[in-house]
Amino acid sequence: MKAHDGMYIDGAWRPAAGTDTIEVVNPVDEQVLGRVPAGTAEDVDTAVRAARAAFPAWAATPPAERAARLGALRDVLTARKDEIAETVTAELGSPLSFSQAVHAAVPILVAGSYAELAATYAFEEKVGNSTVYQEPIGVVGAITPWNYPLHQIVAKVAPALAAGCTVVLKPAEDTPLTAQLFAEAVAEAGVPAGVFNLVTGLGPVAGQALAEHPDVDLVSFTGSTAVGRRIGATAGAAIKRVALELGGKSANVILPSADLAKAVNVGVANVMSNSGQTCSAWTRMLVHAAQYEEAVELAATAAAKYGDRIGPVVNAKQQARVRGYIDKGVAEGARLVAGGPESPREQGYFVQPTVFADVTPEMTIAQEEIFGPVLSVIPYEDEEDAVRIANDTVYGLAGAVWAGDEAEAVAFARRLDTGQVDINGGRFNPSAPFGGYKQSGVGRELGAHGLSEYLQTKSLQF
């Protein structure tokens, strides 16, 4: 896990334009793992020019050949899955077992799904006297977060390459070593020079330069709603396409007919997963008033089991942010039934698994994305009340519904203003579209819907 001291541009590791570097810190022991270049606007411009030059040939490459390169990428990632897991664990602090099962395994599934889709997707169709073509949009600027460092890269780069686009990636500054490992895998998979390029750096410098670059045709960003709003405004001024996967405050609605213990335990596990650093986490648990105290007790007991099972949050700033929200919950009158703001360890950016009861919908902890292992349990009086509470945030990314009857759960889920809902603990599907309503974003990732974000439509009339 040696850090590269350059940028991956036009098929080779090249020196950065400047001399500034970014320290990569292990959030468990706070030790420096390495340093990577802090990219500048000049680095971004070099990468974009390489991507622009490579675009015509890659766009003209038959879909079957693009599929073959993605299949090779999947195979390389599979062969290096242990190294991937170890790298994510070092950068993010995720327990190794979780890094193996999720951080390494899921991107392999997604890369494989796009290898298959690229070979079968209907890039051309007949509509009456017209032939309609789906063509690659051009150069993609991909800006990815740190919470799922490889998954978020693959969820953008794989469909872009399948579509025939070329890419410049600016990964999160907290987890750049995983991105460098991915660049190595791209080269090993035989993807042509210039088709994928990597520039490490800070968001306000390299990220902004990428979003503003006139030769970038689409910006795909995952991160906070505040930053997404700025990127959307920048792109709008240039009439440039965007795909934005932003924040969430997802509701886990447990209807009275559900298996309460199972729904609560799975719900707590969902929030504690990845130390709560998941945009789609079910951070609001809605329970009928008649079952409320039982659910609170179950949630508190379940959360207590995660004290030694979750890793830290990513950095000191995030730790302070999450602990600040816990203090805010107490100050606004919520009842702390598990965890609290005190750090459980002297070293590392750890936060206690925390559960609040007596949370009202208007409280800060019920409205704002915390991005840590913090759960709010909220009572509701009837189904109408549950729908109102579940939809009463600016977000609409994900959610869950539990009921004894699947049809009952589906009927309720259809009333939620959110992009994805798990029914009775539904399994992850790498081909299902993922994305949000309202301020949770614009566009979709994964599957055919994710591929279509990187295409534009042309029709010929005969």
Automatic annotation (TrEMBL):
Keywords, comma-separated and alphabetical: Oxidoreductase
PROSITE patterns: ALDEHYDE_DEHYDR_GLU
Alphabetized Pfam families for the sequence: Aldedh
InterPro entries recorded: Ald_DH/histidinol_DH, Ald_DH_C, Ald_DH_CS_GLU, Ald_DH_N, Aldehyde_DH_dom
Domain Aldehyde dehydrogenase: 13-459
Residues of the active site: 245
Source organism superkingdom: Bacteria
Molecular function GO labels: oxidoreductase activity, acting on the aldehyde or oxo group of donors, NAD or NADP as acceptor
Keyword Oxidoreductase: yes
Family that this chain belongs to: Belongs to the aldehyde dehydrogenase family.
Name listed for the protein in its UniProt record: Aldehyde dehydrogenase
Native source organism of the sequence: Streptomyces olivochromogenes
Organismal lineage: Bacteria, Bacillati, Actinomycetota, Actinomycetes, Kitasatosporales
